[in-house]
Amino acid sequence: MRAICRTYADAPALHVAGTHVASVDEKTGIQARERLHPTKPTRPGLIERREFEYVRHGTLCLIANFLVATGKSIAPTIGPTRTETDFADHITRTIDTDPDAGWIFVLDQLNTHKSEALVRLVAQRCDIDSDLGVKGRTGILESMKTRREFLEDRAHRIRFVYTPRHASWMNQVEIWFSILVRRALKRASFESVAALRTRLEEFIEYFNAVLAKPFRWTYAGKPLQA
C-alpha cells in the first residue's frame, strides 16, 4: 500500500520526466437498459419520476485508464468482453499513445493482469531478449508469481504496481468510475448497446475537456486500524 502511495506522490515528477502513471481497471456488465416509459421531469411540488420497469438490450465492458498526474482518461477500450487478450490489447493501445515514454500501471491482482500476453508485451517493448520460459512449466512464464515478479521489475521502462487483495479502493480509477456512474449512467435510458457506447465515449471526451484534474490523494499507506 505504501508503494502505491509513493507512486501516486511521485506521479507529477515522473510525468515531467516522461513517465506516465496510469491507474487501470475494468468496469464490467454495464447494462444498456431502456425505461419502458419516459421519465417525468420535476415540476413545482413534484420530484422527477422514473419508470421502474425496463428492457435490457445487452452489456458492455469498459477498460479505462486514469492518468494520475493529469486527471485525464485516455485510450478507453469498450467491448463485450474482458479477456486476457482484451486487456493486453488495451495496454498495447495505451502504450502506443506515447510509445517511447515510461509507463507505470497501477492495477489489481486479477489473473488477466498477470498474464503471459502482458509478459510478452513488456519483453517486446523493453527489448528484453532473455528466454521467458514456458507457461505452467519453466522460467518467467511458469506461474502467476513469476510473471508478477517480472511485470513489477523496477528496471523495466514499462512496469506494473499491484494493489493488495481486497483493496480496490487504492486504485484511483475506481474513483473515476464512480464519477462516470453518477454523471452518465445512473439515470440514463439506452435504446441499444450502440447508444450506451456513444454515451461512454461522449462522457470521456467531456470529462477530459471540462472536469479532468488530479485527485488529491491523502492516504499515506498507514494501517487503518490497530
List the helices and strands and how they pair.
Layout: H1 2-17, E1 19-35, E2 54-67, E3 77-79, H2 84-96, E4 102-107, H3 116-125, H4 144-151, E5 158-162, H5 172-185, H6 193-211
Parallel strand pairs: 1-4, 4-5
Antiparallel strand pairs: 1-2, 2-3
Structural class: alpha/beta
Tell me the total number of β-strands: 5
Extract low-pLDDT stretches. Answer: none
| Strand coverage percent | 15-25%
N-to-C CA distance: 16 Å
Large-scale geometry = globular
Main beta sheet: 5 strands, mixed
Number of domain units: 1
Give the SSE string: HEEEHEHHEHH
Count of DSSP-assigned helices? 6
- Can you say what the CATH homologous superfamily is? Ribonuclease H-like superfamily/Ribonuclease H
Which sequence of strands runs across the widest sheet? Answer: 3-2-1-4-5
Radius of gyration: 20 Å
Helix fraction, binned, reads 25-40%
The fold-level CATH name is: Nucleotidyltransferase, domain 5
